[in-house]
Every structure is written in structure tokens, then in C-alpha cells.
Write a structure and sequence with these properties.
4-stranded parallel beta sheet; alpha/beta; 17 strands; RNA-binding; 376 residues
Length: 376
RNA sequence: GGGGAGAUACCAAAGUGGCCAACUGGGGCAGACUGUAAAUCUGUUGUCGUACGACUUCGGAGGUUCGAAUCCUCCUCUCCCCA
């Protein structure tokens, strides 16, 4: 994998770049739609490519390992072929499930023991076998196994958790070096910074991660309930330490405002379930603010969903009609909202990229941030 | 014509002397959602008040009782069965 920074913003740490993978180039900053089980919920790949202009999507190790299982994905020739997505794929390691399925797992030095949420069966994830699994998935970017530390965590827990993540990282890197891609294309491996909301821990973690000189670095354990100011503070600490010339990936973030603020701090890659999940639940993100399309106020509004939207649904369907679909519980409503939101998220990062190239990112960002939180 | 059942909030439906402004579900209204156990979850839904609370409600009119959605009388309406 190759990363080249193209432009740097004058008023902030924002930068634009190009990330080259075996499945295509990614223009950063970029938002990566989440397709946990090999599907960006409710969206055809065709629309992901042609409408949303997605350049890379996510898959999840834990979920794909449980279902359909590695045998099937291996037989299919990897996740790209299995799901018919020939663009880049990043797979999360299951580290987030260590956090989100906390009640169903036990953390040990060797790894994390999971009780499947599907059938209760037991499974053991280690820093090593998570690499092996991602080799089978064939993702372009593989993630290290980490513990996504919950918020709030007391200092001692956060420190121990971070240190475990660091030890796991050593093992993951070893395994990564010992193994080869299975399908003839390149794969890379991103380590993850932890450290909860403690400045000194974040600093230690970022330094530790930086030493490994990976092709890209991720920042995890944020947007798990902490105040946004804390997140930005941690980001600033971490982005000042991680190597400038390597892409930075902020995991699981976030709201449109979060993304712009993080871009300003020098983050290049983002993923979040928000555009799809919140879309399914009737929330639309637009350049003018947030719409809860289920609200009564849209009942008689026959204007397009989003005049400025980039996808075909934005001008094809009216707010009134979309509201009707949600009220009626029609799945088309969830699909339209998801497509719109993803289109908006991709528009947002592409616009940010444009502004960085034009050297007026900060000013634009400040103006956008004002509008993005509006409730329409 | 004869016999029976019933009428409760937007709808359906529980409650059959005080713990009832009234279970529950639907519908309505609003909120939440950040590396997806989510096409999910939460709140609210008589009026007024931020709240403690106050006031008006269970087909209608009377009555019994300290107290009635609940018991009695009459009335109105609906449904079912038989002819």
C-alpha cells in the first residue's frame, strides 16, 4: 500500500492524499461505509459505486467469521469475490465487539473469548488468529486486535487495557509478517492507538504505535460516550505523534461535525454506522442540518429530499413521500434514507478534500460546522 | 316477534365498590442511535401546571354508598342466535 499526501491546509493540520491499494485508489480524506456482514445495509454495490461514490467499505471479522463462516468465504475466493465488491475493503478485527458485546466475552492475556450472539457457541479470538481470519477474508486493510476501552474507565483500567492492546499488537505484527495473502493481492495491517481519555496514556500509546512504522495507523476507543471536547483533545495529542506521512484512521467516527473537526486535526479516514443506522431510523444528514423525516412537519412538504444531494434519490423523492414510507414501515424508506446519508457523507469528505486543495478548508469547515447541527 | 350479549380514552381491549386518570397492544407525537447482536430502542399520549398537585372522565339520566367505570332503576344505541 502506498500513501501520498497531496496538499496540506494552511490554517489547520488537514491534508489531502491518495491511498493506493490493490483494489484501487482512495482519495483522502475519505469516509468508508460500514458493511459489517459483507453488506452495507440496504444498499446495492452498484449504488455504492455510482451514486454514493464510495471508494472503500468495511467488513467485520467477528461477524463474518460467525456467519457465513471462513470455509465459505475461502471457497468463494475471499470477501471481495464473495460479495461482488471489487473495490478496497477494510476489515475490523473484532476489537469493537470486545467492547460492544462485553457481556458475552471474557478478556484474557491470550485473547478474547466470545460467546456467539447467534447460537451461544464459544470462540476464541487472538491477535494471531484474527490476522489469519483477515487473510482469509482478503481485506486490503486488516486491523489489529485491540480492546476498545469503554468510557468512562478509571486510569488504572485504561492503562492496563492499553498495555494489553500493545502486547497484542506485537503478536499481531509477528503473525502478519509470518503469513502471506491468499488471493494474490496486497494486504496491509493497521495498529490501533488506545488510552481512553487520558492525555498521557494517549501519548504513550501513539508513541508505541508510531514505532512500528505501519503503513497506516488507527485511533480507536473514541466516540464511545466521552464528551466531544475530550475526543478532540485526545485526537490532537495523537495526531501530533503519529507519523505525518502515513494515513490516520479514526475508527467509528462519527457525526458530520466530528468528521470535519477530525480532518482539521489531520485525520484521513473515517467509518461510522451513523449514516446507515440513523438513516434506517429516519434521520437524514444534509448540508443545511439534520432532518427527522418521521416528524409531522414534513407531512405536506413535497420538496425534494435534499436539493443539494448527490444521489438520485435526493431529487427523485419528496420529503412527504419519504415520511410516508417511514410511517408505513416500508423498507424502501430505510433504503432511500441510507443512500441519501451515505451520499451526503461522501460528499462532505470530498468537499473537504476540495477545500484543502484550494487552501480554504478551515474557513469552510467553520461555516459548515455551524450548519450541520441545525435541526430542520 | 322470542332469547342472549354488550356500550371504557383516537382504535382494540382489560378492569366489575376504594390500591383507577384507568392494565395492555395498536395508532399518534417526540427523542435516542458514533470500528452495527439495531428496518432498533426509549419517552409520551384527558385538561391545566416544571413539579407536589388540581380539575373533568368509563353510552345517557337518576339513585344506593363515606366512596361508583364497577351496585340498582329507567332510557338510548349496537351485535349475535332462533323464528
Amino acid at each position: 500500500m502506498e500513501f501520498k499526501i497531496e496538499n496540506k491546509d494552511r490554517g489547520s493540520a488537514a491534508r489531502s492524499g491518495i491511498l493506493k491499494t490493490s483494489h484501487g485508489e482512495i482519495q483522502t480524506p475519505i469516509f468508508m461505509p460500514v458493511g459489517t456482514v459483507g453488506s452495507v445495509k440496504g444498499i446495492y454495490h452498484r449504488d455504492l459505486t455510482n451514486e454514493v461514490k464510495a471508494e472503500i467499505i468495511l467488513g467485520n471479522t467477528y461477524h463474518l467469521y460467525l456467519r457465513p463462516g471462513l470455509e465459505i468465504i475461502k471457497s468463494a475466493g475471499g470477501l471481495h469475490k464473495f460479495s461482488s465488491w471489487d473495490g478496497p475493503i477494510l476489515t475490523d478485527s473484532g476489537g469493537y465487539q470486545v467492547f460492544s458485546l462485553a457481556e458475552n466475552r471474557k478478556l484474557k492475556e491470550e485473547g478474547a473469548e466470545f460467546k456467539s450472539h447467534i447460537d451461544g457457541s464459544k470462540h476464541f479470538f487472538t491477535p494471531e488468529n484474527v490476522v489469519d481470519i483477515q487473510r482469509i477474508l482478503g481485506s486490503d486493510i486488516m486491523m489489529a486486535l485491540d480492546e476498545c476501552t469503554p468510557y468512562p474507565s478509571d486510569y488504572n483500567y485504561a492503562k492496563k487495557s492499553m498495555e494489553l492492546t500493545h502486547r497484542w499488537l506485537e503478536r499481531g505484527i509477528e503473525q502478519f509478517k509470518k503469513t502471506q495473502p491468499l488471493y494474490g493481492h496486497r494486504q496491509t495491517f493497521f495498529p490501533i492507538v488506545q488510552g481512553s481519555t487520558y492525555t498521557d496514556l494517549r501519548k504513550i500509546s501513539a508513541e508505541t504505535i508510531a514505532k512500528h512504522d505501519a503503513e497506516g495507523n488507527a485511533i480507536g476507543g473514541l466516540s464511545v460516550g466521552e464528551p466531544e471536547e475530550d475526543m478532540y483533545e485526545m485526537l490532537e495529542v495523537v495526531t501530533n505523534i503519529l507519523p505525518l506521512e502515513k494515513p490516520r484512521y479514526l475508527m467509528g467516527v462519527g457525526t458530520p461535525v466530528n468528521i470535519l473537526e477530525a480532518i482539521a486535526l489531520g485525520v484521513d479516514m473515517f467509518d461510522c454506522v451513523m449514516p446507515t443506522r440513523n438513516g434506517r431510523n429516519g434521520m437524514l444528514f444534509t448540508s443545511e442540518g439534520i432532518i427527522n423525516i418521521k416528524n409531522q412537519k414534513w407531512k405536506n412538504d413535497f420538496s425534494p429530499i435534499d436539493e443539494n444531494g448527490i444521489t438520485f434519490v435526493d431529487k427523485t423523492y419528496s420529503k412527504s413521500y419519504l415520511r410516508h414510507l417511514f410511517v408505513a414501515g416500508e423498507m424502501l424508506g430505510a433504503q432511500i434514507a441510507s443512500l441519501h446519508n451515505l451520499g451526503f457523507y461522501l460528499w462532505l469528505v470530498k468537499e473537504a478534500r476540495k477545500k484543502i486543495e484550494e487552501n480554504n478548508f478551515s474557513e469552510w469547515k467553520n461555516r459548515m460546522v455551524q450548519k450541520l447541527s441545525n435541526r430542520l
